[in-house]
Amino acid sequence: MISPILSEEDISLDLVTKGKQSALSKIAIRIARRSGLDEKVVLRGLFDRERLASTGIGRGVAIPHALLDNISSPVASLTRLVPPVDFDGPDDDPVDLIYTILWPRSASSAFLPALSRICRLLRASQVRERLRLAQSADEALTVLETQLLPSSTNLHISPDQMLGQRTDSFRVPTKPTGAVTITATPASIAETVNITTVAFAMAILGQTFLFLCP
């Protein structure tokens, strides 16, 4: 799933920022310019998600993400920071690798499986090490495309395939304000949403993020 939504132009190496907010702001501007999206919409989506809980997953990695109404396909970027910044992650390690992903709200049922794959990819020590040593965007993209999960997990799928995938599901308890069905497979956990408020939907994403990135 990496190459269909991430190209060399979406990779920034050794970006200098003043901290977490500065990093997210610069990333949002770059994504907006590349995708034609309103940078305020991108920034608000990332900040709203970050206020729920940090998207840092530990080991110097963060995966900021947001569901947006005004996009029809996923948008992503990879950023390497110099120096690393505090991201309020679970292990308190400063973050230097940031994979940002924006996802169509209309296809939210495919979002968590994709997020889970990205988490697992970036939790692999050899991937992180090679990304930190990459000398160019092309080299970094090659790392993502070649240092993948076991062959049984297919990451090379198109955005259309990602947006259309479904799996068998089981229901978990939720607040009375809405029903959320969480879908499970051996490789991933997916969210099939039927939520009455956007705020509750984002809360669910915040609560499940660390579950997706154990």
Architecture blueprint of SSEs:
Layout: H1 2-5, E1 11-15, H2 20-35, H3 39-52, E2 56-58, E3 61-62, E4 65-68, E5 75-85, E6 95-104, H4 111-123, H5 125-133, H6 137-146, H7 159-164, E7 169-171, E8 178-184, E9 189-195, H8 198-212
Parallel strand pairs: 1-5, 3-6, 4-6
Antiparallel strand pairs: 2-3, 5-6, 7-8, 8-9
Helix pairs in contact: 2-3
Detailed description of the structure:
With 214 residues, the protein is α/β, with parallel strands linked by helices. The protein has one domain (2-212): Mannitol-specific EII, Chain A. It is built from 8 helices and 9 strands. Strands 1, 2, 3, 4, 5 and 6 form a 6-stranded mixed beta sheet that branches. It has a 3-stranded antiparallel beta sheet with strand order 7-8-9. α2 (20-35) runs antiparallel to α3. It is globular and about 35 Å long. It starts with a helix and ends with a helix.
